[in-house]
Amino acid sequence: MVIFGLSNTSHVAYSLEARIAFSHLFFKDWDPSHETLPYPPAIGSYALYTKSDFFDHIAHLLTQVAKLV
Predict the structure, then answer these.
(1) 41 preceded by cis ω (within 30°)?
(2) How many whole angstroms separate alpha carbon 29 and alpha carbon 37?
(3) What pLDDT, on the 0 to 100 scale, is given for residue 16?
């Protein structure tokens, strides 16, 4: 049971760190304050409210992916 718990903990930590790394890499204007879980949050949700913001963020995402390839 202990080995399973330790293995599961390392998997959860890895997935959280990977999500944060990909957020920094692919999300335009990502702010590290989105990574913490304080209540109430220091800033609002990471969201897009206009079509132009949406297309700007998609263009940024595609640019970042192209850099990887």
Answers:
(1) no
(2) 19
(3) 84
Q: How far apart are the first and last CA of the chain?
A: 41
Indicate if the pLDDT at residue 9 is higher than 90. Answer: no
Q: Taking the domains of the chain in order of start, what are their residue ranges?
A: 1-68
Residue 23 CA to its chain's centroid (Å): 3
Q: Is the pLDDT of residue 38 over 70?
A: no
Question: ∠ CA 39-43-48 to the nearest 5 degrees?
Answer: 125
Burial of 12 (0-12, 13-18, 19+ CB in 10 A): exposed
Q: Which residues contact 48 (CB under 8 A, 6 or more apart)?
A: 54, 57
CB atoms within 10 A of CB 53: 13
